[in-house]
Each structure stands twice: as C-alpha cells, then as structure tokens.
Amino acid sequence: MVAFQGVTKKFRSSGQLALSHVDLEVHEGEFLAIVGPSGCGKSTLLNMAAGTIRPTTGSVIFRGEAVDGPNTQVGYLTQHDTLLNWRTVRKNVRLPLEFRKVPRKEAEERVRKALAMVGLPNAGDRYPTQLSGGMRQRVAIARTLIYEPSVYLMDEPFGALDAQLRVLMQQELLRIREATGGTFILVTHDLNEAVALADRVVAVSGQPGSVKRIFDIDLPRDRDVIAISATPKFRAYVEDLWSLMDKPPAMQAV
Known about the structure:
This protein has 254 residues and is α/β, with parallel strands linked by helices.
C-alpha cells in the first residue's frame, strides 16, 4: 500500500538530517505503529505519505505510484483535533465532503453513519466547545472516516488525553479498524499503545532516523486493550522495544 524506498530527508532551513536511508513497506489492511525518540523523523514519514513533504533522496510509493504532491487518498489524524468551534459537530464532519462538492443529501447520510460509527449518533447539533476532549477526538475521527480514505495516518492522536480516556479511545480505534478494514499507520511515543494496537511495530533510531528493527506482534487480533496488557507476551514485546530505544546518556549510565 505504502513503500518508503531509500528515503533520506535533510531540511534546508536548518540543515538537519531527519531521516537516513529508510526502507519500509506498509501492507494493505495492516495496522503499523512507528515508535522512536523525539526528533527521529516519525512524523516526517507520515507527512511524506501524505505528500506534504518530499524526500531529499529516495521515493515514497503509494499504490504503485510515486507520491509527488498532496495525497488525497489518505486521512490524517493529529494530536490536536483542529475542529472549527463556530461549526456544529455535523458541519465539522461534513466539511471534507463540502470541499469535494458531494450532494447535500448524500453528505448528510454519510455524516450520520460516521457519527454513529464513533459512538456519537446524537451529537450532531452540538458545538465542539460543548464536548469533552475524548468526544472532540471522536468527532475528528468521524471527519477522517467521512471521505473513506484507504490509509489512515495518525500522529499521536491520543497524546493529549488522560490515561483512562486514552485506553477507551484505543479500544474504540480497534473497533473502527475492524469495521473499516482500512490500513492504519500510527506514530506514537507510547510503547504500550503501539503493541496493543498494531500488527507490526517499527522501532526507529534517534536522529537521523532509520529503521532499527520491525516486530511482528503475534497477539490475538480481537483485542481487549486492558486484558492483553497484563499478559507475559505483551510485556515481553514492550521490554524488547524499550531495550532498542535510544536513551539520554544519564539513563544509559543507570
């Protein structure tokens, strides 16, 4: 579905080498998580898949074709919901369809289905300022679902949520993944989140980022985030990932 082939990225403004010779394939229908220290280029990889950043060398391939501009076939979910507070929930979710000039009747039906899928069937007339953080993030997910992308790019989508709400949203994301059958690429600093959600986890080195190791997560697909996190196999994956993380010198000496 997505392939990064010999990708290197050096930012001209700062001279910073963010990524170095990244080779990575994302398979159709899989849930791939990318973990690594801050500044290792994880978000840059997502931006390349979205077509908002181009590699300095190498290429990004999407469904067999090079990405050389904005990729309208992907949905992008960030840590900040970017909802428009002056528009109702319904109108926020409908916005991508307005840009695509989808007929009003069809758009309203798709909005209804998207809000039902994220568990907010009766929230359409409310405004974002009337919603909790978790509800706002569900609206953002619905807005991403509405135009039915083939790939969902997610950059720390639950990073701003408290621990309990984060677990609930992780479980919700697994349910949505099963319902849509889409391809998901998640960037996260949370190793537990990566193992709980993903089919494969990519460990990226510190700056410049490169692929250190890819873990196949052999855990039941119908997952309960809380229950599975208590299993020895889950803990072993997390410990193996932690052992690969580049750590500050002070921590390395402990």
